Amino acid sequence: MNMKIILFSISFITLCFSQIWQPGATGYTFLKLGVGVRPVAMGNAFTALSDDGTAVFWNPAGLGVINNYHISGMAMSHLGFIQYYNLTSSIFLGKKVGSLGIGICYLTATDTRRDEAGNELDQFRNSDMLLNCGYGKAIGKKKQIAFGGSGKIVRSQLEEKSAWGFLGDFGVILHPVKVIYLGTTIKNFGMPRRFINKWEYPPVNFRQGLAIKIPFAQNHWALSLDYSLYPDYIPTFSIGSEIHIREPKLMQTATKVIFGQESSLSGFSLMVGYQTGYQDLGWSGFSFGFSLEIMIGSALFLDIGAVGLSYGYLGYSERIGIGLNYSPELNKAKK
């Protein structure tokens, strides 16, 4: 079994690098934007820690790790003139079956039409859309290895011109010991497309990650590291950390002391991260985020979160998100 895993891993990594070093300029630029408040707040270091509904975008093997139902939406204002929205969901089908993941993304930006002299004429909008469907499953007696894959349909429009693309993601997550996760994924694997009068290659992204996740009761602390490689950009390194506290009774007591009345607040998360590759000084590459968790039913939680990412002199990108998380395992634990 171990030899088969090693041979598969070697073949998988070889396939990854053969795709990354394709010739030509890449397109589909919006696919490089991070999805989800939590992963972005952790500096995009999420390859080995893909354990929520955004796994279909970061590493579809994570769909084989999760055991709950999750749906979330995110809205982003990027550099003041770009708006980015996405919706993600994970559907747990059972420990022996795995999970399905579904994601939808839409990006729109405003541009200005000019005449030959450079004078402004009018404005028009560009857009990119994506539909992502994936599946992941853990195998082995101790579920120490998970595989996953997803297929993407992409449509880009520039004024009246448009083009379609079909891409795929493949990933593996190893869980050798209780608190350690190792992840590898190749994202945006596919054929080039012709957009207007140019050929565009997909931005194939090879990622490897290491994560340490230490649970205590219903809480956890996580530290995650990522290495990312694109064919048209220098390699980048990411590091992120998260502390998640879920203590309903403690939170209710705290809100009563502070605000004079109890609330449905059941927990919170704090995230911080950093990614290399930003040339500006200052806080460029740093990200900070938080989320509040509200219990709205038995094992049903509402998450509200936000994250800010600094691009240095270029400004900031803000994201806000809201999600629902149903964890049936909590009901079983109570019984």
Automatic annotation (TrEMBL):
Gene3D superfamilies to which the protein is assigned, alphabetical: Outer membrane protein transport protein (OMPP1/FadL/TodX)
NCBIfam families with a match to the protein in the record: PorV_fam (NF033709)
Protein name (database record): PorV/PorQ family protein
